[in-house]
Amino acid sequence: MTLMAAAMLVLPVMDAIAKVMANFENMSPGQVTFYRFFFQLACTLPLLAFGAAGAFRAKRPWLNLLRGVLHGTASLLFFLAVKYMPLADVFAIYFVEPFMLTAMSALFLKERVGIRRWLAIAVGFGGAIIVIQPSYAIFGWTALLPVACAFIFSLYLFLNRAIGEADSPLTMQTLAAVGGAAVIGAVLVAGHGAGAADFQMSLPHSALGLVLLIVLGSISGYAHLVVVRAFRMAPLSLLAPFQYFEIISATILGYAIFGDFPTASKWLGIAIIVASGLFIIWRERVRAAQEASGNIADR
Q: What span, in angstroms and rounded, lies between the C-alpha atoms of 79 and 145?
């Protein structure tokens, strides 16, 4: 639980850096996303040098590379969103991801999801609408980027489940960085060639910018290693609520660096999303207890 809480509090620093690079260093979100995965891969090199070179010998290499493609795409959408929107708003909308994952589990994996959890999913999406509505009025279609990010990240989590413990966390992170850097590199080249402002290629404009990009990649690599490690030490239902810790540091960073603070209506939407997510997690624990006792009814 300590590992998970620490990782969730630190990860929004990465997104704050992405916003700083876009708004103060004039670097495109596409380029920032590429550097994220490039430096994430670079951060694994010291580990590879100390006897962990087997990280590239994965049992399921193509699935791990596909994880990287999905993760890279989701990160690009998220960084595009944080360029234009307040950090807390982006995170609040993104928190529909647990609801999407629960719905996918029911529809595609035939996992049992009862009426109470379906209602919680509906209420959670209602909370997201409360946050999205004023953001959509201000930012237009950009306000839907976190929703698309949440959907793609849900697919990424599905692949995590498919891979299971076949490969080590270092292997998964190394190959995901390769896949992410490859797909974002291709998108960046295409977007730059088409003249899209959000995909312009550039080097860091200052020493501070280079340092921030290295910090961004380091957080991406090591914090996600911590998350993978945490999920191997404790049940998903126990650790999942700690994802909502991100809204704490995202709100603090958004206010301290950019002067952004959620309105009362957005706090209401955030509260509804978090409460609905916590209810789904609680129902999952109840269902697990029912299965253990032989009573798997979920109403």
A: 9
